[in-house]
Please model this.
Amino acid sequence: MKEQLELLWKLQKLDLDLKNIREDRDRFPKEMKKLDERQNLEKERIQKEKEKLELLEKERKKKEKDLLSEQEKVKKTEGKMPEVKTNKEYQALLTEIEGIKESVGRVEEEILMMMEEIDELKKHLLKKEKEISVSLEKIEAERKKIQEKMAQGDKVWKEKMERKEALSRKIESGLFKLYNTLKERRQGIGIVSVKSETCQGCFVHVPPQMFIEVQKTKALIRCPNCNRILYFEGDGGKR
Model:
């Protein structure tokens, strides 16, 4: 029985390792998803800045076309001056020209203001691009680490599964079945160590005589409280 319990103890350690790897496997895709969301958010931020800049540039070009159109109106209206015959017509034409020139002045002022805004936005965009570039590099580095952990986890999983299969073949079928039943019912732990007359699975004291029998490792003994198989591996042992 001692040899069987030792094999079962090794199997339990392997199962716990496999459980941890399985939890990592479940966690890693979620972490990758969060990284993707962070990356997309950073890209969206810079895209919005670019779209704002593009919109301003389009408005500026439209204003410049409007300015050319107004300037052309001034030229055309001024070209009518030689045709004026009366003072009244002349004054009306001057008023019209003055009105168009005022419009030209307003458009020029708007264009200057837009150009200043565009320059500021370009500076801001350049700064943001540098910040986001650094942020994306960090995200990519985190992604690479997770991918490396996933690859390493797959490798370790394969190795431990092979060891588990080899161990399982050496354990008596009845004991192996009992262990698996207990493991399913007790959060993945079917066999636990007992120290100082205390079960390390539920931390309930076991009777002194039972503790003595567990130390002998000659029989299968189960915790009277949590029903797990008890195993003794010495004072320095760890579950």
Observations:
- The longest strand covers residues 191-195.
- Residues 57 and 225 are 76 Å apart (CA to CA).
- The first helix runs from residue 2 to 79.
- The radius of gyration is 41 Å.
